[in-house]
Amino acid sequence: MAFRPIRRFGDPVLRMAAEPVTVFDQRLRSIVADLLDTVDAPGHAGVAAPQIGVGVRVFSYRVDGEIGYVVNPEVVELSDEVEDDVEACLSLPGLGFETRRAQHAVVRGVNADNEPVTVSGSGLMARCLQHETDHLDGMVYIQRLDPERRREAYRQVREQSWFWQ
User: Where are the beta strands (DSSP E) in 26-65?
Assistant: First the structure.
């Protein structure tokens, strides 16, 4: 359908929990198509519907050549093994901060036809699944940082030219 612009940190849609999808119709298929077109751009690993201004529980991903989406995702498994690694977000362009995430994640949901879907992965895929599900819960990754890192992240956000646009 169309590449959609990404909402930036500070936009209220990013702070609100997305509504579960209950109607599986052409509108949903259009949202999914837009998410897939948007995530297919260079440098994009995942895009959640709130990032394109739509408050429903859907995200797309593109990691290691694998492209897909999940409607109404739930994280059903996280490994005990965690790792700090630099994480970034399209809604916070130009910034990246060490963020602790589980090294393996499993997400269950459905597709646009309301058929079951399970996506699992380790490393970047696990980070993406957790990150995008957070967006659907109204959370941006810098909210997960420890207090000292979070203060520094918010300071850097305030210094960005895009923050006041």
Answer: 46-48, 58-63
Q: Is 132 a catalytic site residue?
A: yes
pTM, two decimals, is 0.94
Binding residues: 89, 131, 135
Helix (H) or strand (E) holding 30: helix 26-39
Place of tokens 């990150």: 131
List pLDDT tens digits, range 117-160: 999 999 999 999 999 999 999 999 999 999 999 999 999 999 99
Q: What is the CATH number of the domain that holds 123?
A: 3.90.45.10
Known binding-site positions for Fe cation: 89, 131, 135
Check residue 116 and report its DSSP letter.
E
**Domain ranges, residue 61:** 12-159
- Chain segment 24-50, per-residue pLDDT in tens: 999 999 999 999 999 998 888 999 999
Using CB atoms within 10 A of its CB, is residue 78 exposed (0-12), middle (13-18) or buried (19+)?
middle
* Count of C-beta atoms within a 10 Å radius of residue 108: 16
The number of domains in the chain is 1
Catalytic residue among 83, 132, 148, 159: 132
